Amino acid sequence: MSTDTTPAELARRLEALESRIAYQEHWLDTLDAAVAGQEQRLSQLERLNALMTERLRDQQRALQENDTATPGPEDEVPPHY
């Protein structure tokens, strides 16, 4: 920085810096809100995934229990016996 900088030039530079800082703060706030929203959505999706996984396991267990309880065609004796 040269020593022959006028007060008007310094004021202009200071104003430009303040403007850049305000712009960056705005974008940081925007990004922070976006990240918070994504974190909330991710938590919801993780809970939904856990619920759906548990339901799928329950259905698979029910199918296996049903398969073992109900005789299949291979278990039936042909009518001519």
Short description:
By secondary structure, this protein is an all-alpha fold. 78% of the residues lie in helices and 0% in strands. The radius of gyration is 35 Å and the shape is rod-shaped.
Query: What is the H/E string?
Result: H
Q: Provide a count of the helices.
A: 1
Q: Largest sheet, if any?
A: none
Outline the low-pLDDT stretches: none
Shape label: rod-shaped
* Gyration radius, rounded: 35 Å
Overall residue-averaged pLDDT value = 90
Count of distinct strands: 0
Class derived from helix and strand content:
mainly alpha
Straight-line distance between termini: 107 Å
SSE blueprint and pairings:
Blueprint: H1 7-69
Structure description:
- The longest helix is centred in the middle third of the chain and has 63 residues.
- The chain is rod-shaped, with a radius of gyration of 35 Å.
- The protein is an all-alpha fold and 81 residues long.
- It is built from one helix and no strands.
- The chain starts with 6 loop residues before the first helix and ends in a 12-residue tail after the last helix.
- Helix content is 78%, strand content 0%.
What key phrases describe this protein's structure?
rod-shaped, mainly alpha, 81 residues, 1 helix, 78% helix
